[in-house]
Amino acid sequence: MPGTGMRQSAFNDYTDAGFGSSPFADVPSRSGIFAPEPPASLPRASAFDAGLGTSAMLPTASTFAPTGPDVRVPETAPAPSPLRLASQDEFSTMSSEIKRTFTLWVQKAEKQLREDYASLQRERQAFEEEKARVWQEFVAQKQAEYDRIRDDRRRAELEVQNSARQIRQEREESRARIKGERDQIEKDVQQGRRRFLLEREKFRMEYEDLCFAESFTEGPSAVQNAQQSPAKAGLTLQAEGAEKERQRVSEHNVATETMAGRGWQAAT
User: Fold this and answer.
1) How far is residue 216 from each of residues 171, 178, 228, measured CA to CA in Å?
2) pLDDT tens profile 201-254
3) How far apart are alpha carbons 125 and 102 in whole angstroms?
4) What is the pTM for the complete model shown?
C-alpha cells in the first residue's frame, strides 16, 4: 500500500528515542485527554522506579472522557494514594504522547495519500489528453489516406473513360475511312466494267462489219478479185489490228478487276 513505509519510518522516528524526547515535546502535552494531577502536597512516588505493582491504578473509561482544553475532570472517587496518583499521571502523559504522535502520523499519511491521489489524477488527465490527441492524429491520417485513395481511383476512372472515348473515336474514323475507300473501289470497278462492255461492243460491231465486207468481196469474179486484192489485204490488216486492240483492252480490264478485288478483300 502506498505510504506504508513512510508511516512506519515516521512512527519509528518518534519511538526510537522515547516519547519524552519526541520532536513535539515543546508543545503543551495536556491539550487532550489526561488524568487528574495529585495534590501538590503529596510527593510523586516512584511507582515506575520500583516497578508497577498490583497497587498501580490503570486508566478507565472515565479517565479518557472528552473534555475541553485545560478543563480538568472533577474527582468523583475518593482520593487515591500517592503511589497510585503518580502512576496514573505518568501513564496519562505517556498516553497523550502516543495519541499525539499517532495523530500527527495519521495526518501526514493522509496528506501524502491526498498528494498521491492528486498526482494520479493529473497523470490520468494527461494520459486522457494524450490518448485523445493520438486518436485525433490517427483519424486525420486515415482520412487523408482515404482521400488520397479516392482521388487516385477517380483519376484512374477518368483516364479509362478518356482512353475508351479516344479508342471509340478512332474506330469510328477508321470505319468511315474504310467505307469511303470501299465505295471508291466499287465505283472504279463499276466504271471499268462499263468501259470494258462498251469497248467489247465497239469491237464486236467493227468485227461484224469486217466479216460482212470479206463475205461481200468473195462473190465477184477472179478479175474483180485480183483488182480488189489490195483492198482486201488492207481490210485483213485492219481486222488483225482490231483484234489485237480488243485483246489488249480485255487484258487491261481483267487486270483492273483483279486489282479491285484484292483491294476489296484488304478493306474487309
Assistant:
1) 67, 57, 11
2) 888 888 887 887 777 665 554 445 544 455 555 556 666 766 777 677 767 666
3) 34
4) 0.33
How many other CB atoms sit within 10 Å of the CB of residue 83?
21
The C-alpha cell that represents 131 in the structure block: 490518448
Per-residue model confidence as pLDDT tens digits over 28-80: 444 444 444 444 444 444 444 444 444 444 444 444 444 444 445 445 555 55
Q: Where are the domains of the chain?
A: 4-124, 183-267
Query: Residue 178: its pLDDT value, please?
Result: 93
Separation CA 219–CA 61 (nearest Å): 186
3-state SS class at 37: coil
33 touches 63 (CB < 8 A): yes
Best CA proximity match to 238, nearest among 263, 198, 203: 203
